[in-house]
């Protein structure tokens, strides 16, 4: 099976090159079926937005957050699977610098970027597709994917060498987001009625995995026919997204409607991934989301994935399993789960749902 992951099944086309070529119609490869197009699901819920939670009072020594803040995090996890955090302790200057550094990378000449082209074997580097199904309908986006943790996978040679300061910025940003991820894990643990370090320990304690995916969505002449990123739930633990402050694009599925997230200034968008759905025995659920594109302006976002150590079997936490609510999922390592996703590409929520017992052997 791994042999099929050595290379892409067909030549890679950079979406940015298509966009910049001035075409007036998108190639058929990017046209989504009618049911998946953004226009077919209107009208949208115009005023709705995911909860915005102020983490003031969150410091390194973890002063107890007010009960009401904890309750808001709890209901956001149960009702939405998504929330925004402000006053989270990461400097606004670093957030802006990280985003603009990556924007500079995507505006470098193509031959410089091509030196970092990725393969399905690791996905690390500069890419333009997910999944390796030949003839698949593609998303209107390019991306850059890199490993931050564990240190054994962190390879500066696979990180962009330009702009000059790029690697330092990525490093500093990663360090701050690992800290923020650890804090959010504490809140989730406490809200599940567990010891504050329980989820973190289930992830491998200090030995977590973390990676960054920078998404670049070029202008699109026919945004109603395609998506920047197809509907999916995140396979990992926790996602901390730095959105484009000027250009909305992320849509979250809520009660069978697509809500376009309105980013708050210098906020991160946090969402629950499939691994936390499994650990929490579906008390918290990962939620489908997708990205729409537009014809007038490009969009760039940074997704930071805070994941379990890749070889620990992830299964429902014993304290969250009872006679009334038996374990819903068999044990599976994140490595096994990730391979499953890579072969299939983004497929809504079908991946995590297909794991439910009685497939337990």
UniProtKB/TrEMBL annotation:
Catalyzed reaction equations: jasmonate + 2-oxoglutarate + O2 = (1R,2R)-12-hydroxyjasmonate + succinate + CO2
Species this chain originates from: Gossypium raimondii
Stretches assigned to the Fe2OG dioxygenase domain: 207-308
Cofactor(s) named in the record: L-ascorbate; Fe(2+)
A GO molecular function held by the record: metal ion binding
GO biological process: defense response; negative regulation of defense response to insect; regulation of defense response to fungus; regulation of jasmonic acid mediated signaling pathway
Keyword list, A-Z: Dioxygenase, Iron, Jasmonic acid signaling pathway, Metal-binding, Oxidoreductase, Plant defense
One Pfam family hit: 2OG-FeII_Oxy
Record-given protein name: Fe2OG dioxygenase domain-containing protein
SUPFAM superfamilies associated with the record: Clavaminate synthase-like
PANTHER family membership: OXOGLUTARATE/IRON-DEPENDENT DIOXYGENASE
Superkingdom of origin organism: Eukaryota
Membership in a protein family: Belongs to the iron/ascorbate-dependent oxidoreductase family.
PROSITE patterns according to UniProt: FE2OG_OXY (PS51471)
Region (Disordered): 29-52
